[in-house]
Inverse folding.
């Protein structure tokens, strides 16, 4: 039985919102920059304004025993929330604002004295020995300290090992390679990767992205077979944190995503991948958190058009997303789509996930292309709404500021399944080419909120419908919702068929 707090390599970011003691010993805390409120715009020609962000602390450690965390906020506040909510049963709070939490083994959670702002993030990994020979020729090893690597291209058979206490500033690429790994308990930091501006622009009121820049994913897997990612923390991605396209057998476990504040800083994407998954991970993003999808038009043009088409996978199937804790600062928590240029997307299962903060849509299936989306399951999902949810707003110009327009009834949409051609995202030319959504199951969902849940379903035409959608064992604040309540809270058009709560 053991526990260990990982060493912290200090960077230029400084935040001291908390003191944390693990079994009586003071622990060092890492720092990340996150989005402060839901204010977004399509890429206007330059990066998001830093004034819309805040710094937060996070604790990184491993344990296979019970540990006691004593957490002292710089400014005491009441009440304190701990998310996921089941951990509050093992917490205590004294009159001085000190928070004590007892945790056994691996866990990922947030401590929130101030609501959604300035939360402490706690990442406790399982005790693990990766068994990697750090000196082996196929191992790229980075130990404690800062490492300014830049572009890093993995070759077949290689392992990138980022050890605890390491901060590796890099963009990771893997293209047409097999049997690769990214392992370790250190930090892959993408903050030094900047957009490449092709020409100066600063547009206002645009509803589509300005094409004046190229931006790189923190980790980009293209046409790879046999990929394993385990243990690392990804901080401050320029755009998506991990994007995988046309990959087979890609499995991601126990990663932590934090520091997402820049435009389009999505979490994890599986685009036309076969056999893969994400498990036991913490994902906090400033755009869609976890996406299973087809190709996007800009990806197809930039990454794929010069590849041999027979090497590409045009289907996405056999994907499992399980046991993840998700905090969404803009967009959607769990999504199939939006990009859906694929023959089909099927046998996709989300299970045992805890969605601790939401923004616009919680569970989404967004079909804008030709894919046949079927065999989708959302199972045993915990959803926690904030007691008061800030409305997401679109910024129209640099001078536009976020204003909180109080609406106590405003809530995220619990499920939103839709079929529609999109002027920017779709690769098809006509609505007649759209695919359809059918055979979707949402079961054992527990929502805790003061707001009423809402459900939206939107087919496009008789051949591009949204149908055979089943909800079963849906609970709101511990009570099963009735068919009458479900029907009152549902918006569905004429191209939605066979929608049932059983």
């Amino acid at each position: 039985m053991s526990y260990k707090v990982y060493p912290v390599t200090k960077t230029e970011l400084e935040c001291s919102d908390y003191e944390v003691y693990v079994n009586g010993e003071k622990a060092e805390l890492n720092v990340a920059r996150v989005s402060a409120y839901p204010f977004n715009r399509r890429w206007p020609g330059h990066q998001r304004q830093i004034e819309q962000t805040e710094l937060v602390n996070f604790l990184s450690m491993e344990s296979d025993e019970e540990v006691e965390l004593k957490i002292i906020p710089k400014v005491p506040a009441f009440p304190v929330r701990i998310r996921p909510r089941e951990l509050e049963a093992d917490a205590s709070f004294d009159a001085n604002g000190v928070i004590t939490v007892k945790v056994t083994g691996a866990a990922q959670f947030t401590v929130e004295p101030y609501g959604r702002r300035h939360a402490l993030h706690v990442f406790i990994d399982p005790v693990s020995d990766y068994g990697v020979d750090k000196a082996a020729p196929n191992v790229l090893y980075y130990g404690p300290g800062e490492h300014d690597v830049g572009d890093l291209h993995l070759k077949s058979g290689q392992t990138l090992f980022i050890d605890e206490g390491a901060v590796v500033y890099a963009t990771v690429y893997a293209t047409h390679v097999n049997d690769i790994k990214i392992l370790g308990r250190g930090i892959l930091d993408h903050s030094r990767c900047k957009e490449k501006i092709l020409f100066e622009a600063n547009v206002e009121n645009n509803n589509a992205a300005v094409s004046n820049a190229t931006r790189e994913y923190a980790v980009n897997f293209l046409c790879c077979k046999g990929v394993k990612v385990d243990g690392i923390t990804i901080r401050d991605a320029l755009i998506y944190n991990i994007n995988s396209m046309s990959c087979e057998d890609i499995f991601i476990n126990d990663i932590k995503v934090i520091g997402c504040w820049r435009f389009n800083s999505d979490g994890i994407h599986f685009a036309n991948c076969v056999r893969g998954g994400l498990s036991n991970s913490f994902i906090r993003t400033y755009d869609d958190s976890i996406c299973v999808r087809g190709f996007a038009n800009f990806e197809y043009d930039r990454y794929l058009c010069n590849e041999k088409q027979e090497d590409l996978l045009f289907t996405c199937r056999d994907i499992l997303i399980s046991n993840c804790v998700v905090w969404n600062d803009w967009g959607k928590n769990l999504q199939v789509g939006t990009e859906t240029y694929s023959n089909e997307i099927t046998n996709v299962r989300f299970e045992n996930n805890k969605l601790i903060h939401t923004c616009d849509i919680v569970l989404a299936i967004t079909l804008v292309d030709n894919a046949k989306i079927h065999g989708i399951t959302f199972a045993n999902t915990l959803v926690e709404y904030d007691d008061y949810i800030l409305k997401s707003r679109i910024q129209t110009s640099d001078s536009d500021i976020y204003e909180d327009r109080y609406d106590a009834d405003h809530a995220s949409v619990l499920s939103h399944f839709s079929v529609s051609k999109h002027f920017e995202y779709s690769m098809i030319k006509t609505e007649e080419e759209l695919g359809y959504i059918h055979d979707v199951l949402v079961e054992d969902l527990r929502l805790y909120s003061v707001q009423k849940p809402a459900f939206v379903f939107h087919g496009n035409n008789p051949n591009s419908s949204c149908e055979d959608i089943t909800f079963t064992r849906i609970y709101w604040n511990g009570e099963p919702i009735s068919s009458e309540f479900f029907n009152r809270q549902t918006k569905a058009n004429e191209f939605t068929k066979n929608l049932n709560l059983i």
Summary: The helical segments are 297-304, 483-488. The chain is about 5% helix and 50% strand. The mean pLDDT is 96.
